[in-house]
């Protein structure tokens, strides 16, 4: 199944860092998401665009994971030539991951 079937996402950026939150629709799916959506899985999924470290933070009170991806936005808003220089579509892309 696709991650989007059990979770939604929010994204943000700070310079050349992209931040993606994955939030379970149902609390009972949170453990499954934690098991499948690891730092390694996200780093591999975005290996073509994320050239730095991927760090995962767990927010169990809101059934969410927060991924901080360094060197992910082509230099950041003021340097990137990308159409999506803020990386807002990366959350949608992650929701397409098979879990």
Provide a compact summary of the structure.
This protein has 99 residues and is α+β, with helices and mostly antiparallel strands. The chain has helices at residues 30-36, 39-45, 90-94; strands at 7-14, 17-24, 54-59, 64-69.
Written account of the structure:
This protein is α+β, with helices and mostly antiparallel strands and 99 residues long. The chain has 3 helices and 4 strands. It has a 4-stranded antiparallel β-sheet with strand order 1-2-4-3. The longest helix is centred in the middle third of the chain and has 7 residues, at 30-36. 23% of the residues are buried.
Strand content: 25-35%
**Bulk shape:** globular
Mean pLDDT: 89
Q: What separation lies between the terminal Cα atoms?
A: 6 Å
Based on secondary structure, the structural category is alpha+beta
Helix proportion:
10-25%
Give a count of the beta strands, DSSP E runs of length 2 or more.
4
Q: What is the H/E order? A: EEHHEEH
Main β-sheet, spatial strand arrangement: 1-2-4-3
- Which sheet architecture does the biggest sheet show? 4 strands, antiparallel
Task: Return residue spans where pLDDT drops below 50 for at least 5 consecutive residues.
Answer: none
Output the radius of gyration. 13 Å
Number of helices: 3
Quaternary class: single chain
InterPro entries: AtuA-like_ferredoxin_dom
Protein name: AtuA-like ferredoxin-fold domain-containing protein
Organism: Candidatus Scybalocola faecigallinarum
